[in-house]
Design goal:
Length: 260
């Protein structure tokens, strides 16, 4: 596939997907979603890729959400298609067997925030701003926002954000737990890179199993989740990477993990 609305780059074991529609604040059209899904599929299958970064082009936005202009005259079938498309994208990010960092370089609104919340970690530039703003155009979050936001911040704050549609600053988002860290704009790119490199150096199987356990465990009973963790522990304990980690520790050197 030729990428037109997304820039897809790979280096240092990091795959970077940049939403590239800055003139529309990187709003998600059907075509943008298709290209991101295609890039994610490549990142999934490339064993040299250890971590994925999702970000937006330009200085102003990560993404201002679903393409509002494409909603004019939307009928039930089109709405269903839009819903499926967003769900597919969010689940692809959430279920990717590699860590995904959302690098929020500006507005993350509506579907933009929902997509960011489907990633594993969120780093925000201090000039970025977030909100579930759908209510302002007579809509509700439809790509999992009512659920993923509630899981991140609790019911009270989720209701405040979804019902008012207000836009908050990155610092407030950090205090609420929506973003993991806020970074000055001039240090943003390098901080994202350093975090991605840090994750890329970890043991891939341990990363994959940790991510899956945290995702799945949140929605089931503690007993069942602990049983899953036990099984996951067994899988990770049987990897060559564990032996490498243990050896490296004794030899006082950095481990070199192979994902085996
Ligand atoms: N879609 C399309 N174009 C957008 C856009 C969007 N979401 N957001 C901004 N743009 C376009 C603007 O129209 C403008 O284009 P031109 O008019 O110049 O051609 C350009 O980007 C620059 O935007 P502004 O001129 O408005 O820039 P400002 O700095 O003045 O304002 C802003 C920035 C972010 C405050 C403002 O653009 C804004 O409020 N944008 C809308 C943000 C928003 O409400 N996003 C939520 C979208 S609703 C569904 C499931 C999910 C969804 C829908 C359905 N189903 C299950 C059916 C998801 C919905 C959403 O995400």
């Amino acid at each position: 596939m030729e990428f037109k609305l997304v820039i897809y780059e790979k280096s240092e074991r990091i795959a970077t997907i940049t939403l590239n529609r800055p003139e529309a604040l990187n709003a998600f059209s059907k075509e943008v979603v298709e290209e991101v899904l295609h890039a994610l599929d490549d990142a999934k299958n490339d064993e040299n890729v250890r971590v994925v970064v999702l970000t937006g082009a330009g200085q102003k936005a990560f993404s201002a959400g679903a393409d509002i202009k494409a909603m004019i005259g939307m009928n039930a079938l089109k709405a269903r298609e839009l819903s499926l498309m967003g769900e597919k994208l969010c689940l692809a990010l959430e279920n990717l067997e590699k860590p995904v960092i959302a690098a929020l370089n500006g507005y993350a609104l509506g579907g933009g925030l929902e997509v960011a919340m489907s990633c594993d970690l969120r780093i925000a530039s201090e000039n970025s701003r977030m909100g579930q703003t759908e209510i302002n155009i007579g809509l509700i979050p439809g790509w999992g926002g009512t659920q993923r936001l509630t899981r991140l911040v609790g019911r009270g704050k989720a209701k405040e954000l979804v019902l008012t549609g207000k836009i908050i600053d990155a610092k407030v988002a950090e205090q609420l737990g929506i973003v993991n860290m806020t970074v000055p704009a001039d240090k943003f790119t390098e901080t994202v890179r350093q975090l991605a490199l840090e994750l890329a150096a970890k043991a891939p199987v341990a990363l994959r199993v940790s991510k899956a356990l945290i995702n799945k465990g949140a929605d089931i009973s503690l007993d069942s989740a602990l049983a899953l963790e036990r099984e996951g522990f067994g899988v990770v304990a049987s990897t060559e990477d564990l032996q490498e980690g243990v050896r490296a520790f004794s030899e006082k050197r950095k481990p070199v993990f192979k994902g085996k």
